[in-house]
Amino acid sequence: MHFGAIFPDGVSQYLKVYITSGEDMVVGYIGDGAGAEISSTWTSPFENDSLGSVAGVETVSNIAQSATNMTSISRFNSLLVWQGATPPTFNLPIYFMATQNAEIEVNGAIMTLLAMVSPELDDFTPGGRRPQALVLDIGRRHKITDVVIQNVSYETDAPRTSNGMYTHNNVTLQVSGMAVQNRSEIPTLFS
Q1: Which of 5, 12, 95, 100 is most buried, with most CB under 10 Å away?
Q2: pLDDT along the chain (191 residues), means of 10
Q3: What phi, psi does 42 have (nearest 5°)?
Q4: Which of 45, 56, 3 has its CA nearest to residue 25?
Q5: Closest CA to 113 of 132, 89, 128
Q6: Is 68 exposed, middle or buried (0-12, 13-18, 19+ CB in 10 A)?
Q7: Structural element, H or E, at residue 95
């Protein structure tokens, strides 16, 4: 089922975000401050290693350094070693606005996003279902499969219609990929 922006609405597809899970799709308008991040972890494992850190030599080394202003540490001690990377993360402010049907364009969109972030657990026995992976398409130019929604926040005090549906709402999603992206995969994110 399709929730959110109804086509045609006069807004470019490049200014929208599309979130798909199975047969459900939510389409919203990309808000100000939307961002993406991919990061690598680098550490400096040698920073405490030096001739002066060897047991028994440390005191002599420290005295020598105090007296001569020379050190037993070299540039090698500052070398960084790659420790891994994190999956891409996205902070997405999304705007939903009712132009024809507030139940589909705003309330249905929020309800579907909340369902996408939620599991289906059994009451007393294990074996429930975790939240499903999604497809995220930002502006029809940045597409990533296998993402999960980590957080959904929306305004509970947004204006409502006479029958209690939101007329518009600002929703913020925090989304993460399920796995790190390889260098060779980066161009496919922008196709």
Answers
A1: 5
A2: 90 96 95 94 80 57 69 79 94 96 97 96 91 94 92 97 97 96 86 69
A3: -125, 135
A4: 3
A5: 132
A6: exposed
A7: strand 89-97
Residue 5 has φ and ψ, to the nearest 5°, of -60, 130
Side chain identity, residue 129: R
> Which amino acid type is present at position 113?
L
Describe the chain by its helix, strand, coil percentages, rounded to 5.
25, 35, 40
Please provide residue 22's backbone torsions phi and psi, each rounded to the nearest 5 degrees.
Answer: 60, -125
Structure tokens at 150: 């980590």
SS3 156: coil
State the pLDDT at residue 56: 57
The single-letter code of the amino acid at 167 is T
Q: How many angstroms separate the CA atoms of 18 and 122, rounded?
A: 30
Residue type present at position 116: M
* Per-residue CA distances from 66 to 54, 59, 62, 77 (Å): 17, 11, 6, 20
Distance CA 95, CA 167 (A): 11
CA proximity to 175, closest of 39, 41, 34: 34
